[in-house]
Design brief:
By secondary structure, the chain is an alpha+beta fold. It has four helices and eight strands, in the order H-E-E-E-E-E-H-E-H-E-E-H. It has one domain. Helix 2 packs antiparallel against helix 4. It is extended and about 75 Å long.
Length: 165
């Protein structure tokens, strides 16, 4: 009978490690109108632009759709807990974010500002890291972003920050 407890414990540890070590993928493609946050095998959330935004949420194969806004009631008494040194914590959490692909085509409708952004776009573009930023004067705006977030690194940053107090 004790082996059943160990099997259940093993399954829970495997599921937790899957959630922690599988990256969360953020995909934004403004040309094809794809806005997605997903973690393979766990969840997927899509924003579908259609007279506003519709949210499609899928958790372990179960689909949910949200079309209308729902009111969220807030409790009257909420204890505010301050985080000391949030800049350091934010910096550590940003190390968990890695941009796999970035392709931007920007027009700000201001000729002077566009001209000032051209040197920045030149220095931030990097073909080795698959990052391309282009400033145009034709009224086009395009964004393709593929990023990964490692939850285990965020958890480690929070634990270290809490233990440092």
């Amino acid at each position: 009978m004790i082996w059943l407890f160990y099997v259940v414990l093993l399954v829970l540890v495997c599921a937790l490690s899957w959630v922690l070590f599988t990256p969360v993928i953020i995909l934004i493609d403004s040309e094809d109108k794809i806005y997605r946050i997903c973690q393979k095998g766990i969840f997927s959330m899509d924003l579908v632009p259609d007279e506003g935004f519709k949210v499609r949420f899928k958790v372990i194969g179960i689909s949910l759709k949200f079309d209308e806004k729902r009111e969220v009631k807030k409790s009257e008494k909420q204890r505010k807990r301050r985080i000391k040194h949030p800049v350091q914590l934010l910096r550590k959490c940003m190390k968990a974010l890695s941009i796999k692909a970035l392709n931007m085509d920007i027009d700000t409708d201001d000729v002077v500002l566009n001209a000032q952004l051209i040197p920045l776009a030149f220095f931030f573009s990097d073909s080795k890291q698959n990052r391309y930023i282009h400033i145009n004067f034709e009224g086009r705006f395009f964004l393709y972003l593929l990023a990964q977030i490692r939850l285990n690194l965020i958890l480690i940053a929070f634990v270290k920050h809490l233990l440092k107090r």
